[in-house]
Amino acid sequence: MLICDGLELRQDDFELRADLQFVVGKVTGLIGPSGAGKSTFLSAIAGFFVPVSGRVLWDDMELTRLSPSDRPVSMLFQDNNLFPHLTVAQNVGLGLRPSLRLSSTEAGRVEDVLESVGLAGFGGRKPAALSGGQQSRAALARVLLADRPVVLLDEPFAALGPRLKDEMLDLVKTTLADQGRTVIMVTHDPNDAKRIADDVAIVADGTVSMPVATNVLFDDPPPALVAYLG
Ligand SMILES: Nc1ncnc2c1ncn2[C@@H]1O[C@H](COP(=O)(O)OP(=O)(O)OP(=O)(O)O)[C@@H](O)[C@H]1O
């Protein structure tokens, strides 16, 4: 279980409270108005944003004071997930070894994971020589290889067209989620949540709500979701 225990985030006059749990192996969508704090909340779980109080726990392990690299967490951002000067294989290999000194077995694992996301044969290219969809696949391959149990997605597919975005969401479901990872995904599009999220948590009015089953939430949306959906 990923637990946010009395977590309080503050940034100038912005405040957000989070007291909730994420069930292991589920995909949870985070929905809420622009500026409500979705990205800041993910950053706090990943360790890039320091809370004023409260704790983040992964089962019995307290993460609150650990640096991002020591947390059992991978994060994908909207942009800049790949280093432009490294090849696709090197970018993906970083998920295994930051030094990039890979054994031949490890290099084989990079090839395998590239194949699993439909990028067989693309390992030698630089990211600039990939389409947007292929870049998203490469970034996802690195997360797959990094093998951390919690994966945070901050709208990494927002710039893709609807068909490609759906393909990537399905790939998240068939790779990360089906491997039992705990996925938290920010989205502005309720259809993304309906497509792959088991649960949805609403971020609004200074609070992250407890996740609720996606179909239950959209069948009978609370006032904060009605206000957001318009
Ligand atoms: N570097 C910063 N310094 C000060 N305030 C910031 C900074 N970054 C974000 N904020 C503020 O923190 C609040 C939460 O921002 P955040 O980006 O987490 O919201 P969000 O829900 O992810 O928004 P969006 O849906 O537009 O991406 C906003 O009020 C924003 O203006």
From TrEMBL:
Pfam families: ABC_tran. SMART domains: AAA. Keywords: ATP-binding, Cell inner membrane, Cell membrane, Membrane, Nucleotide-binding, Translocase, Transport. It comes from the Bacteria. Residues 2-230 form the ABC transporter domain. PROSITE patterns: ABC_TRANSPORTER_1, ABC_TRANSPORTER_2. GO terms for molecular function: ATP binding; ATP hydrolysis activity. This is Thiamine transport system ATP-binding protein. It comes from Yoonia maritima. The lineage of its organism: Bacteria, Pseudomonadati, Pseudomonadota, Alphaproteobacteria, Rhodobacterales.
